[in-house]
């Protein structure tokens, strides 16, 4: 089943084409506020999809693109030392979800980074 990449809500209706993730209506509003240079939004059903773009998006989703953006949250060793947590569908948009989405895509806070030299 399809779930929102940011809050795990069922049945996402939107795509962040540039990030390769599916998102719900509520999280979509935050993505729109980030700007197209960070998250290019398109509706999964009503949006116009060029065949190569749709194929690329399907490949990114099926290969787990979201794990790139949430790498540190998925790594058990790093997650236990972090105070960050992924929001749930019931969390408030302003605050919890919005802060998480900005950290995830604008600050790239959960990506795997090479150790500093």
Give structural notes.
The chain is mainly α and 117 residues long. The chain has 6 helices and 3 strands; from the N terminus they run ββαβααααα. A 3-stranded antiparallel sheet has the order 2-1-3. It is globular and about 45 Å long. The mean pLDDT is 91.
Succession of helices and strands = EEHEHHHHH
Strand content: 5-15%
Helix content: 40-55%
Tell me the structural class: mainly alpha
Query: Treating each run of at least 4 consecutive H or I residues as one helix, how many helices?
Result: 6
- The general outline is globular
From the alpha-carbon coordinates, what is the Rg to the nearest angstrom?
Answer: 14 Å
- Find the count of extended strands (DSSP E, 2+ residues): 3
Low-confidence stretches: none
Largest sheet: 3 strands, antiparallel
The N- and C-terminal alpha carbons lie at a distance of 42 Å
Strand order of the largest sheet: 2-1-3
Overall pLDDT confidence: 91
Outline the secondary-structure elements.
Elements: E1 14-16, E2 21-23, H1 25-34, E3 41-43, H2 51-62, H3 66-69, H4 71-74, H5 76-79, H6 93-106
Antiparallel strand pairs: 1-2, 1-3
Give a short synopsis of this structure.
This protein is 41% helix and 8% strand. By secondary structure, it is mainly alpha-helical. The chain is globular, with a radius of gyration of 14 Å.
Task: Please supply descriptive tags for the structure shown above.
single chain, mainly alpha, three-stranded antiparallel sheet
């Amino acid at each position: 089943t399809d779930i929102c990449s940011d809050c795990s809500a069922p049945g996402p209706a939107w795509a962040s084409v540039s990030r390769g993730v599916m998102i719900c209506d509520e999280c979509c509003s935050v993505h729109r506020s980030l700007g197209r240079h960070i998250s290019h939004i398109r509706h999964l059903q009503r949006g116009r999809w060029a065949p190569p773009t749709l194929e690329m998006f399907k490949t990114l989703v099926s290969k787990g693109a979201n794990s790139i953006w949430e790498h540190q949250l998925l790594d058990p060793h790093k997650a236990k030392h972090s105070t960050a947590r992924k929001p749930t569908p019931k969390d408030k948009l302003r605050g919890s979800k919005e802060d998480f989405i900005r950290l995830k895509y604008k600050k790239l806070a959960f990506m795997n980074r090479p150790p500093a030299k």
